[in-house]
Amino acid sequence: PAELSILNNCSPSQLEGLCSFLQLSTCPEPFLVRFCSWLLALSPDLSYTSAAILAEQLFLRRVVSLTQPPSRHLMAALTSFCSKYSHPFCRVLVAAVLQEHGEGAEQTKVMCELVEECLEPHSVQLVLSQILEVPLSGKLLPVLQAVLGRQEVLPPELLDLLVLTLCQQAPAFATSLDFAKLVTAVLTVYQSQVS
């Protein structure tokens, strides 16, 4: 709809107010899919700040509160939004999920799926750097595995940080099969760079 061009003309506070007025954080998921398809067609593209605000308003509460697998509508909306605005999405949503304490099994699965199927290479690197900023936990190991599964070329400093983190965390994960798989993946994918 032509009316959506207003999203490009709002200040951050106006956009937050508009999202609140439209109740986007609680709108039905089938509408969420349609809204995201409209966002993809928007021209010009949303600014980074606007995309970050929309990522927070549309998805943050939904993903953080997951206690069972996400609906196909929610995954479709996440996937379409990520396909165009993966960097602001990662800055907002991935950071929030990483800071959540507890098991977070469903959030971990969503992050793995997005890393494996949607994110652009620079966003995969962003996810990796975000993971390495927080204490490593069992719920993050599958996400790291998904990042390595992409076999992206990593900047030397990020690869060094990954190796250093794995070395430092090894005693805490001495009996973890997932950690062993992770170390094996690093040695396999980046064998020419790891001494």
UniProtKB/TrEMBL annotation:
<dbReference type="InterPro" id="IPR021025">
    <property type="entry name" value="Fanconi_anaemia_gr_E_prot_C"/>
</dbReference>
<feature type="domain" description="Fanconi Anaemia group E protein C-terminal">
    <location>
        <begin position="1"/>
        <end position="194"/>
    </location>
</feature>
<dbReference type="GO" id="GO:0036297">
    <property type="term" value="P:interstrand cross-link repair"/>
</dbReference>
<protein>
    <submittedName>
        <fullName>FANCE protein</fullName>
    </submittedName>
</protein>
<dbReference type="GO" id="GO:0043240">
    <property type="term" value="C:Fanconi anaemia nuclear complex"/>
</dbReference>
<dbReference type="Pfam" id="PF11510">
    <property type="entry name" value="FA_FANCE"/>
</dbReference>
<dbReference type="InterPro" id="IPR039685">
    <property type="entry name" value="FANCE"/>
</dbReference>
